[in-house]
Amino acid sequence: MKPTIEQWIKEKNLINTGDRVLVAASGGPDSMALLHLLKGWEKAWGLQVMAAHVNHGLRTETAVEDERFVQRWCEEKDIPFFSTYVAVEKEMTEYGGSVQGQARRLRYNYLAELMQEQDIHVLATGHHADDQIETILMKQASGRAVLGDVAMRSIRRFKNRLLVRPLLAVTKEDILDYCKEHGISFQQDESNLSDKYTRNRFRHYMLPFLKEEDARVHEHFQQYADWLTEERDYIESQAEKEWASRIIKQNENSVTISTKGMETLPLPLQRRGIHLILKYICVNQIPELSVVHINQFLYLLHQNHSSATLDWPGNISVTQSYDTITFAVKNIDEGVKTIEPAVLSIPGQTLFAGAAFSAQYLQDETLLEGEGKEHVLVCRSDDLTFPLTIRPRLPGDKIQPLGMKGSKKVNRIFIEKKIPIEQRLNWPVVVDAVGNVLWVPLLKKSIWSSSDLQASDNVLIVMECTGFSEDENGV
């Protein structure tokens, strides 16, 4: 086993001379064998080998025994040891998710913080060839391999550092034989025997059958994973070129693409571009999507509705608004915030959502330049109930448009004017004290707008709105 692993490490360039390597040590045979191997190469390779153990709080006495076992083993071998406790069940109560999913998230968060504190560049885990087969089968069965990694990578970026898997070239049987040959003791996790976990079911029923069919099945699966990964990386490089030309705007939390011309791309490039967008906006962890999510996006891309929104894993929203689609990370802590209403100062200037409203009284028949434009509203003061307020649209808001009979919903105006959904939230609406919608700036004036001024008119209110346009966000 040792020569196979050494060749694998060198072939994949997993560990280099002088690296500080942290081994995620559970106490099981896999991680203990890995610790033993790397410690044996420490002097020859100039390594600094360390170990970290995470107690997930799922087992009481046995979990404590595992931690103490690893600690004693490391002390005997002069290996720096670190450990922590994480409350998986508490996290599940507060945030949901699966036991194994939350355990993995908390474990890797701790390891990343530890590597930062100790200036460790490489994290090594004990995943082996049998784990790889199980992972590939699980992802294929659930549809999660459609866009995400089809298998575990032998090396990948991890929080600006590296995560490596030196044992992927050997099987569980190889590892147990190695432990027996070198007298390496280890702990047994009883949860590995339970069929309530998905991975265990694949391990107990699928893996024995495959190995019975071909003893080298692990090599075939790894070759399949390597080739598919290389081909996927190539397709994604082509997709990146095509999608980049269709990005309208982007920031750290969202990317908006134009759907025009997207339909002409080959279907593989339409699908692969999604993963590239998620890699950009998902800093911490890219959510795994299934075939269901990809088909949802393709439907959104090719259907003719004016707007629609998809909610994806990882707090990702995918929103279609006319000829654009926006991928965004939702802020679950702050939620969606609307701007507080502002009373219009007359005379004076009032700010709302980046727009400036200048208002004044006019007591003669002088016509202000621009009175007929969409950014200016003139009203007779006798027709209004004061004070006037600028606020976001409320559900059910209606306006009686100038020159029309009856009323129209303000939201319908947004739709007709093709205002993107994200802009509608805080688009200013001017109302009087009894709730009459006087004006939706730039879009629609009400019957209270004075289009024909007469010398006999009473005091007029002149409002001018500047500082934003239909093409801008954040209004």
From TrEMBL:
Write out the similarity annotation.
Answer: Belongs to the tRNA(Ile)-lysidine synthase family.
Pfam families named among the record's database cross-references: ATP_bind_3, TilS_C
Its recorded name reads tRNA(Ile)-lysidine synthase
Q: Which UniProt keywords apply?
A: ATP-binding, Cytoplasm, Ligase, Nucleotide-binding, tRNA processing
Q: Which GO terms describe its molecular function?
A: ATP binding; tRNA(Ile)-lysidine synthase activity
One Gene Ontology cellular component annotation? cytoplasm
Alphabetized NCBIfam families for the sequence: lysidine_TilS_C, lysidine_TilS_N
**What's a BP term from Gene Ontology annotated to this protein?**
tRNA modification
Q: What is known of its domains?
A: The N-terminal region contains the highly conserved SGGXDS motif, predicted to be a P-loop motif involved in ATP binding.
The protein's matches in InterPro entries, at most eight in alphabetical order, are given as: Lysidine-tRNA-synth_C (IPR012796), Rossmann-like_a/b/a_fold (IPR014729), TilS/TtcA_N (IPR011063), tRNA_Ile_lys_synt (IPR012094), tRNA_Ile_lys_synt_N (IPR012795)
Per its database record, what is this protein's job?
Answer: Ligates lysine onto the cytidine present at position 34 of the AUA codon-specific tRNA(Ile) that contains the anticodon CAU, in an ATP-dependent manner. Cytidine is converted to lysidine, thus changing the amino acid specificity of the tRNA from methionine to isoleucine.
Q: Which reaction does it catalyse?
A: cytidine(34) in tRNA(Ile2) + L-lysine + ATP = lysidine(34) in tRNA(Ile2) + AMP + diphosphate + H(+)
Lysidine-tRNA(Ile) synthetase C-terminal domain segment(s): 388-462
